[in-house]
Amino acid sequence: MKIRFGMGLDNQRGWHTRNTLGEITVGEKGMLSILETQLGLIRKVALQSRRIVQYLTCLKQCDHAARFYHQSLEADELGTAATLLGWRDQWYLYGWDGKIEGMEAKRLADMSEVESIACKKVAPSEGERLAHILQAMKRRIPAISSITLTRPLAHYPKRWQLILSRLQTEFQELASVPHAGSFLHTLQDRLRDVQSGKKLGKVDRLDFKADGSVIIARAETRILAAHWLADRMAENIADGILVATDSTDLLDDILAANQQARHGLNESSSARSVLQLLPMALTLLWAPLDFTVLISFLNHPISPIRHFARRQLAEKLAAYPGIRGQRWTDTLNRIDAHYGDQAAAVREQIHTWIDHPRFDQKGGVSIDQVLIRAQKMADYFRVQLTDTDETKHILWDTGLVQTTVFIQSLEQLQEDGVIARIRPRQLQKLLAQATAQGSVNPNRIAEVGSLSTVDDLGALIESFDQVIWWQPVMPNTPKEFPWSALERHTLARAGVMLPDHADVLGNLATDWLKPVLAARKQLIIVLPPQDVEAHPTWQMMLSQIHNITEQSIEQVFNHHPQTTTCSIPLPHTPLPQPRRWWQLSIDTPIGKHPYHSYSSLELFLFNPYQWLLRYPAGLETSSVLAVSDGFLLDGRLAHTLIEHFFALPAPLGMTKSEISTWFDRIFPEIIEAEGAVLLMHGRRSDYEELRYRLHRAITTLLTQIKTAGVTKIKSEQALKGQFPGGKIIGYADLMLTNGQGQHAIVDMKWGGTKKFTEQLRENTHLQLGIYAELVRQKTGAWPAVGYYVLSEAKLIAQQDAYFPDAIQVNKKTEESIPHLWERLKETYIWRDTLLQQGRIEVALADQEEIEAITPPEAGLKITPLNPCYNDYRVLAGWRPA
Description:
Layout: E1 2-5, E2 23-26, H1 28-38, H2 48-62, H3 70-75, H4 77-93, H5 106-121, H6 126-137, E3 146-149, H7 158-164, E4 169-171, H8 183-195, E5 206-207, E6 214-218, H9 222-233, E7 240-244, H10 248-257, H11 273-283, E8 286-287, H12 291-299, H13 307-319, H14 325-339, H15 343-353, E9 359-360, E10 365-366, H16 367-384, H17 390-416, E11 421-422, H18 424-434, E12 452-454, E13 464-470, H19 485-493, H20 501-512, H21 514-517, E14 519-527, H22 536-544, E15 545-546, E16 551-552, H23 553-559, E17 581-583, H24 598-606, H25 608-614, H26 630-646, H27 656-674, H28 684-707, E18 710-723, E19 726-738, E20 743-749, H29 753-762, H30 766-779, E21 784-789, E22 794-797, E23 807-808, H31 817-836, E24 839-841
Helix pairs in contact: 2-4, 2-5, 2-17, 4-6, 6-7, 9-10, 11-12, 11-17, 11-18, 12-13, 13-14, 14-15, 14-27, 16-17, 17-18, 24-25, 30-31
Pfam families: PDDEXK_1 (PF12705)
Domain PD-(D/E)XK endonuclease-like: 597-822
Protein name: PD-(D/E)XK nuclease superfamily protein
């Protein structure tokens, strides 16, 4: 067997594909596998997450207050174990035998003591596996005829050097490109001179020669750059390689969109949807419950809970966050009714993943409890593996692997007994280690017709006619070793031959030049946007080339579209601008709603396009993407609390002490059932503020009601009646009746004292006017009306005849509610006439009045609605910021 071997060649394609037999190109993982197979040392490779847990056990066994890692271990057990295990593994790779003589270096002495246990406990690292191979090679030599090294033997770690020195090896450098007189070859010679240390000044800079051998392009955005490059790559490239280390997924997507072969530029990510499920499920273990995570869990495309049940639960929890109370019970009952005979199984899913015991974050949770949930998640993924869709099958398998790795780590912790209860930080570390490698998109594989590709510059080991370097950004550079000079000297005496940091950087700098040096005929560099720091090789080129020319991709597309092979010139089509009026065809079907309400009438009268999109078109924003919070949630909780209060047998006869006793009992129950976001960490001040405001609101409201001589109260009173448009319905927050049989309507608002005071002053309180008319149609008499602002505990009314202690608003007009009702009817008839003509007004706050049509003088004054509550603003037309 002939092998070409280099560090970092695994999963790379930096060479030509050939039809060969008995020849292979591998990196360190591939070489390890070959050697262990031939020497009979095949073993199941332990996962890194499990090794970290094993090493943690060793650290704890040796731990005491004098250990150098003691405080770090107390603060972050798994993180500390991972760091120290990384030190240990690196030492073994560079020649350590597990022992350190002398006690001068305290940290090394501690590590040596830990190693006396770890050598028997922790699964072997790469360096230890190489040591076992060395022992086996004393008895048997692998059947390898020759090994071609892609870098000098001295650049390999010591353990690899010891093994490779026992085999037939030769070093093959990246072949030099014969000089053919092009600027590319001149540039390559110059970069080699710089690399060799030759002194060059500004006067020695090269003049850029635009002979097509070096093409530099840059766009303001990566997506435009990707389209330009896809256009270039549409030409038949007989011998080329694509070097891509940044934004690779984007480039592959653009290539596929242009009907070209994918190159398998697949960035591994721990944020793939299938890998999000287990972390979210485990976050739900903790009290207080994080409703943001819960809503994400319910809305996730992958879930162990049935779809209809998830949707119903998400709608309830988004509007009324809480897993208790009547609304929660009603939601569960709807789910039961939907699933029928399968309801019990769905209820079990809900109990398993949502309505289950939770644990205090400080006290932690037992490993048994975490294992139960992880194993149930693994069971869910196993069931999904029966999916015949290959892509989905890969995704399910990815989730199962992540969960299995996590379970193994937990079992190791449980077996070693080093952690009895696990806290959130530790759980997050275990999850991060189980998901460290992430996963790739199974749909993004290299297709027939793709070029050779590398994302590690050191893996470019052959020359190509054309090299395309996509987005050369500043790479990560290796950090210096964390050990002092004394510690490095002690390690060297123990056989650990660590490379000098300057040599590491020098080798890296050699790799950085490979994309330029590997090009035989043409080099194409697609630079990142100006605000992104470019690669050191590009910076070196700038220092050595005078007047280097960059192609502006925007100018290519804007001024020279004929130079692109796949572009079709199209006339510029601007986005539609807002228009004051939409004209519908007369035969456009606009369905009639069986009834009207204040909400629908407000939109129809004041901004018809919102009404059109909301009701006839049925366009609605999602109600399950965010948890209700802020003043909206406060208002809902206040309404619920007051409904509970006035549902008591005799609320008007309660004393302040009795009200406080009842409030102290019911307020936490309502918060837990419908406002549990206020129980989350960091929300205590919000909770206490709401508690204070609601207690004040109830006591003040009751005082106002008693002063008014009210004897009967109904909350959420249903109202219905007629108007020129048909049926109209509504629900009055409070309908009051005093001792003389007179009625009053009180509409409760959380805030907006100024706004609602102005409405009463201008006689434009349309909602109260509608409710008053509906009461008049039923009783024959106009009721009194008023607003009660809950957050400020203020009752506002136009006159004090009914509410003596209310804040009286002085009207600016002689009109009253009957006049308001007549204006409503006039405006409705006007709008309805326009609707029959297909004319829909788009009334925006800052729109010009030149196209406005004057409403009837006897109608309502048309004022723009608050744009903050307009979900359809973007559908009105493009409005530049």
